Amino acid sequence: MKEQMSNLFHQLKQSVSDVSDKLYDKVHTLQSSPGVRAFELYEWIKENPSTSVQKQTLLGMSYSFYTLHVDGVFFYMETKYDYLLYMTIYSPTRHYFTYHSYRDSLSTVTPLTFPITKQ
């Protein structure tokens, strides 16, 4: 009985170690994979010839609303003058990313680790 418990404990310890190693490798791969910054996406969406822009002046301030559809992925962005207020990227089956300027957890220079096709 003692030997069985010892074997079970050893197998459990090995399984936890294997999972930990795989998780570490996955996090390392995600951190080192090529990505793009929110500010780079802002520039790309703004300059893309397929982007549609709606401009409005509200309370004397100029706001722009950008929409872009590329390869089944939708990009939506809101700016006040040239300041990025909001950006979201999604497809019909997946939400990729949302940026809110008023949240401190993410800045426009934080690298995002998902592939973006640039034209």
Provide structural commentary:
- By secondary structure, the protein is α+β, with helices and mostly antiparallel strands.
- Helix content is 34%, strand content 36%.
- It is built from two helices and seven strands, in the order H-E-H-E-E-E-E-E-E.
- The chain has helices at residues 2-32, 38-47, and strands at residues 36-37, 52-58, 61-70, 73-80, 83-90, 95-100, 111-112.
- The strands form two sheets. The protein has a five-stranded antiparallel beta sheet, with helices on one face. Strands 1-7 form a two-stranded antiparallel ribbon.
- A hairpin with a 2-residue loop joins strand 2 and strand 3 (61-70).
- The radius of gyration is 22 Å and the shape is elongated.
- Mean pLDDT is 77; it is low at 115-119.
Topology:
Elements: H1 2-32, E1 36-37, H2 38-47, E2 52-58, E3 61-70, E4 73-80, E5 83-90, E6 95-100, E7 111-112
Antiparallel strand pairs: 1-7, 2-3, 3-4, 4-5, 5-6
Our estimate of the beta-strand percent is: 35-45%
Average pLDDT taken over every residue: 77
**How many helical elements?**
2
Rg from alpha-carbon coordinates: 22 Å
Alpha-carbon distance between the two ends: 65 Å
Order of helices and strands: HEHEEEEEE
Class from helix and strand fractions: alpha+beta
Write a short abstract of this structure:
The protein is built from two helices and seven strands, in the order αβαββββββ.
Structural descriptors:
single chain, alpha+beta, 36% strand, 5-stranded antiparallel β-sheet, two-stranded antiparallel ribbon, 119 residues, disordered C terminus
